[in-house]
């Protein structure tokens, strides 16, 4: 049974930093690409970043490029998102999500989310 558990959210000031983690279990973590996706209440889901299964390729949305860094530790079954220079518009519920087929395909599993609030 696939399980994804996010942690590390909280309150940060504009310009500050937060580090999110996602603990994965129930599948061969090192064989699947993973993403971070966020959602603002009342708005749709917004894709934030993706990392390939081996960790060698990463992708970022234009909104976070240069400020966020995605990484993974396949030995520990962990996914991370380092968020620097946070902006109020980064406020959202952040989910980690598993790709369905290696480094491609739609998402087939999600965590419960961790709230990030950026405010002075």
Provide a short characterization of the protein structure.
This protein has 120 residues and is mostly beta strands.
Number of strands: 11
Instruction: Give the terminus-to-terminus CA distance.
Output: 40 Å
Uncertain segments are none
Fraction of residues in helix: under 10%
> SS-based structural class?
mainly beta
Shape descriptor reads globular
Please report the number of helical segments: 0
Order of helices and strands: EEEEEEEEEEE
> What is the residue-averaged pLDDT?
96
Oligomer: single chain
User: What is the rounded Rg?
Assistant: 13 Å
Major β-sheet annotation: 7 strands, mixed
The share of residues in extended strands comes to over 45%
Please tell me about this protein's structure:
- With 120 residues, this protein is an all-beta fold.
- The mean pLDDT is 96.
- Helix content is 0%, strand content 55%.
- It has strands at 3-7, 10-12, 18-25, 34-39, 45-51, 58-60, 68-73, 78-83, 92-101, 104-110, 114-118.
- The N and C termini lie far apart (40 Å).
- It is built from no helices and eleven strands.
Note the topology.
Elements lengths: L2 E5 L2 E3 L5 E8 L8 E6 L5 E7 L6 E3 L7 E6 L4 E6 L8 E10 L2 E7 L3 E5 L2
Parallel strand pairs: 2-11
Antiparallel strand pairs: 1-3, 3-8, 4-5, 4-9, 5-6, 7-8, 9-10, 9-11
Characteristics of this structure?
about 120 residues, 11 strands, mainly beta
